[in-house]
Structures are given as C-alpha cells and as structure tokens.
Amino acid sequence: MNNAHTLTYSQSKNRSVFNILDSLVVSVEVTENPYNLPLDFLFEMAARKNKKRGFLFVSKILGKHIPVNPITSLLSGALLAMRYLETVHNHSIKGKKSVIEALISGSRKEEVYHSLMENPFDLPEETLFIGFAETATALGHSVFDLFNNAHYLHTTRERIVGLQSSIEFEEEHSHATEQACYGNKALLQKDGPIVLVDDEITTGKTALNIIESIHAVYPRREYIVLSLLDWRSEANKEAYAKLEEKLGIRIQTATLLAGRIKVDGEPVDTEGYYEYAQSGAAVETEIHAINLSEYENCKRIDDVAYASISSEGYVNEVPYSGMTGRFNGISSSDRLSIDDYAYRVGTGLKQTRSGGKALCLGTTEFMYLPMKIASYMGDDVYYQSTTRSPIHRIDKAGYAVTSGFDFANPDDMAITNYFYNIPYKSYRDIYLFLEREVEEVRLESLVEKIKQVGAQRLFVVTVNSNAERR
C-alpha cells in the first residue's frame, strides 16, 4: 500500500471509508442525503495539522481550499437556503431539481443562479443570518442572498481598535479558537429567528457556544443551524436538546448531508519533505495593481471606518468594506447594490484578462465579494481563498491537498496563512483580492509565493485604499 495515498472505498450504499495517509481511518455512514448528492461531489479528505482533530473534510463546493467555478459556490449556498425553507418553513421549492442538476452537471449554472437571485423568497418574519469566520463567510452570505426580510452578519477574528465585540465565543476544535461578532446591536436586539451558517458541523459545539452567548444578552425564541455537512453524534444532538430545555428555546438544523463518523488511528505528526511540482522553464510574472476606487460609477454601501490592530501591534486605518456584513450588517435591501457593484467590477476586470484560464483569490474572511465579482469575469474563471488552516500537502492522486504555500498574513504577519492546490502554470492570470490596502512590505511574502505558481500576470486588486481617504 502506498502510504502517501488517501484510499476511498464503499462497504455499502450509505457507508464509505477514508484511509488518510495510513495514519487515520475515517468511516462515514450517511443518514441523510435529501438531494442525493454524491459524496465525491461534496468533499475530499486530507490530514490536518491539529492534534484536536487531525482530519479535514475538504469541500469541493465552498471555494476555499480547492478552486471552483464561482457560480458553483454561490449556487451551493442557494441550495442550502432551499433546504432551510423546506426544513424550517415547510416550503415546497419550485425549481429545486434544476438547481441540483445545474450543480452536478455544470450546465446552465449561470442561468439557474441568476433566475434565483431575481426571485428571492419572502420570509414570514424578520430573520438574521450569521456566517462563521473564516470559512463560511461567503456561504452565509450566499444563503442570505436568497431571501427578502433578512439581514446578514458574519463573525470575525479581526481585532478592532476601541471596539468591543457584541458577542464572543470559541470554536474549540479550530487552530484559531477565538471569534468575535461586532454586529450592529440593533440587529441583534430584534427578537426574530437567528440562522447560524457553517460549512461543516462535527460536534456542533461552536453553534451551541454562540447561541448561549447571544441568548445571554439578546434572548429570543428560535435558532436555526445550517451546514453543508452535519456529522453530529446522538450525544451531540442530545446536547442541543438539553440547551433547548435549559434556555427555553427551539434549535432546528438543516443540512445537505448528515451522517455519523468514526475515527481510528492517530493524527499525522509530521509532513515530511514537501516539494512543489514545477514543469518547464520558470515564468517571470508581471505584477499589476488595481484600485477599485477608480470604478466611480459603482454604487456601493458606505465603508466602515474602523481601524484594526494585529497581534504584532500593526494598526491599519484603511476602512473596511460595508458590503461584507462584518460590522453593521447588510439587509435584503442592500442585495441589488452589492450585485451591481460586483457586476460592474467583474465586467471591468474581464477586460484585463489575457484570454486564458484565470484564478480569483480571496483572502481569509474576505470571500464573498471576490467570489461574486469572479462570477462576472467570463468563462474559464476559478475562485478560491487563502486560509489559516494548516493542512498536510501530499502530491498524490486521491488526496485533497496536493500542493500549497505558506506566507505571512499581510494583515497580521505573526500569523501564517496558506493557499493550496494551484498546480504550476495552471493559470495565465491570477487576481488577488484585498479588502483593504496594506503597506507594500507586508504583501511581499504572499506575492513572492504567488509568483512561484507560474502565472504570466498577477493583479493585486484592492477594494479600499488610503488614496480614497486623502
């Protein structure tokens, strides 16, 4: 057996076994698959550099570690929104079959997605959606996109000068556990349902932590937890029931795929020698800077003038974008403005393309807006994001993370970030999206690593810059 290979085999219709580098064996028993989505469409497996949880379901539809067509990610969020309507509101969904077919086959995705966006669903009561940082910020936003009478916030790991988090909680299994929510208190003080959106639930404890934190200050009757994957055990589900009884609330869940997992073995301790695969002569990458403030005909939601402070003491006073939901939140009435901005920027950036395959690269929590922009940049465009998640890189068939680079996070150089799965010379153009301008020296680590992937041109695209403030 090749000990650097992830083997997958099925023992029955609803059970699959994943052998991760001959160190961990993860058995998956599917108990709920309402849309009959193939497991290999949803995820692959990798070894995670985390002793608390040494494996990772690497999503193939999220647009984080694996590059995807941006419409695929946006449409996946819409499908999860449909599942929410079916499960929580008992709403029969017209057009659900076409969404599933578009996702699986890849055909008519744009047509199906834009048809959904033109006909959002009316929620019976004002509802607040909250996406979890960093991985589910775009997923939460794309779920929210399907509704009227809704608001959206996302949690963050950003530290803001002079601003206290409205709620605080921990994501205990993560490599970076502390999270904050600087959301508009007026939104949190409403008594309508709160819908928490995450890409994956393993124990469900993160959701319970934030529900308890919210309920202590902003109590209400109903909470809903949405996820692409739900692996909670019976004991985990019982913890939900106990919290319901303790707080006098109702917690409902909805997912695209649920099941039980069993893990045997030990986490992978060391990665061993890793060498990035290259072929042919080295490429000299041209670097271009694009400041999106030049797109003056784009109506956009007001920026948020907060300054961040990194763990190293670096203060960045460039305003945050008001189109992410990180601070004041966004509402259903903002959807058209955000879409118009993304359309105008995307069609503008499309004119800069060389005509070959292109990658749009979001950065950590800044995922949705670059993804939406990428969806308007034409054919043969892929999207993914940088991440804090440390994953073992093994260049073998059947393993989810075959290549990758680490770099100093431009916003906090004491923190190592990563990007994965960009084979050498796989893209002619790469567009790196930054929410806020940073000092040039702070970008050097990331830019140097991107230059090694062999693209002909790298565009550093900045949404907000110091130039706008002068």
From TrEMBL:
Name of the molecule in the record: Adenine/guanine phosphoribosyltransferase
A Pfam short name: PRTase_2
Domain Orotate phosphoribosyltransferase-like as annotated: residue spans: 42-259
Limits of the TRSP domain: 324-449
Taxonomic source organism: Peribacillus huizhouensis
Domain of life: Bacteria
